[in-house]
C-alpha cells in the first residue's frame, strides 16, 4: 500500500515538473529576440503594430525567416511583410495542411505543401530541425499557445493595403507591374473571368505582353487560355516535383494539353505538351521561362511566363509570294522594326514600285533598347522623323535587289557605296567561313547577318543582329530635341556596354 502511494506521488511530481517547464518556456517573441540569426525578422516585427500585438495577445503561428533570407530578398520591407509571416491559431508541424490565414486582412493565404518529407509555406522551406517551438505567450492561465517555425525565404504577399485578398483575376486586372494586359483582354474576350476568380486553389501561368504579338494573340482562344490553368493544385516552383505531368483545363475530347515544370541552370520553366490537337492547335511541346514566379493570390498562385503555352510560332509562306511589308507584318521576330516603321511613316516607302534590299534588325537586336527605355514611349510621334532616318539607313532602293553574295563580291576588302533612303553609305561585306555567315562592316562596326537573302516579291531581306547606329549619332543630337536625346542616351548605353 505504501509502495503504491509513493509511486503515485512520484508520478505527480513528474507531471508538475513538466508543467512547470512548459510554463517557464520563453514566449515566441522573446525566443526570437534571443537568436542572432533571426534579428532582422525581429527588427521588422517592431515596425508592425499588428504583428507585435498579435504576438502579445493572440494564439498564432509564426514563420520567421533567417537573416540570410532577408539578404536575398528583393521585395519591399513594409509593415505588411511581417503580418504575412503570422497566421491565426497555433499549428504544430503535424497540423500544417493546405493553407493558413494571415493576421493581416487583405493578404493572400499562406499555402502549405508537403513534399518528400519536407514542408514548404509558399515557396519557403521550413527548417524542420529548428521549428515546432511552442510556448504560451504568458505564464499564467490566460496564456495563449503559439508556435514558431524557421524558414529559409522571406514570404512576399505582393499585394498590399487591400480590404480583401485578391483573386487571380483581380490581381491581373489591377496590376501595373507585370505587363499582362494583352492576356487579360483575351480572358475577357472569351468571358472566362470566372476561371480566374473561382475558389479551390489553382496554378495560373500568364504570358507577358512582350510575347503576345499579333499572331500569338490571334491564336489564343478559349482552349489556349484554359491550358494556362492547372486546377485544384497550388504549385510553387520549389515544392513541385520536376517533370511531373499535370492536367490543365484544356481537357476535352479533341483538345488535350498537359503541363510540367522544369529547372535548368537555376531557372524555372513550364512546358506544355499538346497531346491532342486540331488544325488550329498543333501537337507538340513548347517551353516557356517563368520570369516572375510565385505570386500568391486568394485562389492559388500566379507565374508570369515569357511566352504563351500551346501556341507555336507562325509558319510563314515562302517569300517570293510575299512583298517585304507583308513579310515584316507577319514575322513574329521582326515586330519592332515593323512597328517603328508604321509609326514613323517609313513603311510607306516599301509600297513604291521599286526593288528593295532591306537590312532588318531582328527583335532581339532592339531588345537592349527595350530594356533601357520604355518601348511604348518610342512610338510617340515626338521623334518619329529621327527614327525614320535611322530606319532609312537600312533600306536600299533601286532597280534590282542585292544578295549578300553580290555585295560581298562587289566590296571584297574595300567598301561598296550604296544609296540608302537616308543617303549614301559605305558597306564592307565579310564572310566567316567557319560559321558560314556574312558580316557587315559599317562605320567601323561589325554586325553579324543572322539570316541572309530572304526572297520577297519586291526584293530581298537580310536579318541583322544590330541596328545601324553609331556613337556619332549620340554626339550630334540636337540639344532642342529632348525626347530624341533620351532615345540616343539609351542607344549610347548599348553602343558602349
Walk me through the structure.
The protein has 497 residues and is α+β, with helices and mostly antiparallel strands. It folds into 3 domains: 25-151, FAS1 domain, CATH 2.30.180; 168-305, FAS1 domain; 319-496, FAS1 domain (Roll). The strands form 4 sheets. It has a 7-stranded mixed sheet. A 7-stranded mixed sheet has the order 17-16-22-21-20-19-18. A hairpin with a 2-residue loop joins strand 20 and strand 21 (445-456). Helix 12 (324-330) packs across helix 13 and helix 13 (335-344) packs across helix 16. The longest helix is centred in the first third of the chain and has 23 residues, at 2-24. Residues 15-23, 474-484 and 490-497 have low confidence and may be disordered.
List the helices and strands and how they pair.
Blueprint: H1 2-24, H2 28-33, H3 39-45, H4 49-57, E1 60-65, H5 67-72, H6 79-83, E2 86-88, E3 99-100, E4 110-115, E5 118-121, E6 124-125, E7 133-136, E8 145-151, H7 168-174, H8 181-189, H9 193-197, E9 202-207, H10 214-219, H11 222-226, E10 229-230, E11 245-251, E12 256-264, E13 267-276, E14 284-297, E15 300-305, H12 324-330, H13 335-344, E16 355-361, H14 363-372, H15 375-378, H16 384-392, E17 395-398, H17 404-411, E18 416-420, E19 423-432, E20 437-442, E21 445-456, E22 459-464, H18 471-475, H19 482-496
